[in-house]
Amino acid sequence: MLVKNNDFKEFIENLTIYTGFLIYGPDKGKVKERASQIIEKLKLEQSLSIIKVSQEDIEKNNLIDLIYQKDIFSKKSIISIDLDLISSLKLEEGFFLYTSSNEANYILLEAGNLNKSNTLVKDFTKSKMLACIPCYHDTESSIKETIKNYSKKFNLKIDNDSIIYLSNRLGSDKLLTFQEIKKLSIYGNNEHVSYNDVLHAVGDSSLITINKICDHLFNSNKAPYFYEKIIEAGHNNIIVIRSLLNHFYFLLNIKESDEANLPPSIHFSRHTLIKKQMQLLSKDKIKKIISNIYELEKKSKEQYNLANTLIKKFLLYYSLV
User: Which residues on adjacent β-strands are paired with residue 232?
Assistant: First the structure.
């Protein structure tokens, strides 16, 4: 059975009718969150143990044996497998028939991006006793809801301007959003956190590095280098794409308004590089770049495993033009 994002709240209230769960998608933070919610809910319903299966376990045991393996302290177990960490997993013929038995343990599979044509996705979608749960990146509107939900969870009090800023900066990975909202809640200590406080607490060196990616395009060949630093720091590549989009829309607005000076919100250290971009790029050229960035975001989401390569290729191209 396919479980869409809007149906998840209703789905999690009726978990015990399912014997297996496939949770997958490009948003690894959401995959982990959904897996934790399912495990916690099942543990509330009945006494369960968690068996996290490693590569070594798969090499030593038949998967079906693991599904029927009994724990002396509980009637059933949850067999948890991260498919991204186990390369040799093979499903025996009739595997899904075994999982439907009342004697079988629950099986919970986590994975990265899988195509709709993937065998697991097809089988989990077709079966009424198996749940297929895709986890896609938040959209521009849903990221705001995620921020509001996490703010409520951690008793963080922020205004709408702060939510808009965070939604533009945090991109679409739930794990990063969770960590940043938690950090802000500690910073706020149950008091209202102002917009300036948010800028101070969240606008760290990563924001400076993202600005360097944008500013060095057409000025040097350093943008791909700064991009690698952002990815190494654990940030989602969608943040970079949206920052590029905001940057070139900013350049276009300045061009169309015929303003000679940059606004005060732009730090003076960026002025020289941005002014060079303004001199070099026409309005039509900027519009073309914006169109290419939208296309880049689309391809990066469709081909998640190639996203970093696509983005670096884009940055390298506009570093040399």
Answer: none
Question: Is residue 308 helix, strand or coil?
Answer: helix
pLDDT tens track for 212-255: 999 999 999 999 999 998 888 777 788 899 889 999 999 999 88
* Other Cβ atoms within 10 Å of 102 Cβ, number: 6
| pTM score, whole prediction | 0.57
| 238 phi, psi to nearest 5 deg | -65, -30
Environment class of 44 (CB within 10 Å of its CB; exposed 0-12, middle 13-18, buried 19+): exposed
Q: What's the pLDDT tens digit per position in 69-94?
A: 777 677 788 888 888 877 666 665 55
Decide if 113 contacts 85 (C-beta within 8 A).
no
| Residue closest to 285 by CA, chosen among 240, 248, 247, 254 | 248
CB 37 within 8 A of CB 135: no
With tokens 């697991």, the residue in question is 120
Q: Tokens 């039509």, residue?
A: 284
114, 137, 164, 302 from 171: Cα distances, Å: 21, 9, 11, 16
Three-class SS state of 203: coil
198 three-state secondary structure: helix
pLDDT score of 177: 86
Domains and CATH numbers, the chain: 5-134 (3.40.50.300), 142-202 (1.10.8), 205-320 (1.20.272.10)
Q: What is the mean pLDDT of the chain?
A: 84
Lowest pLDDT segment from 36-40, 48-52, 139-143, 293-297? 139-143
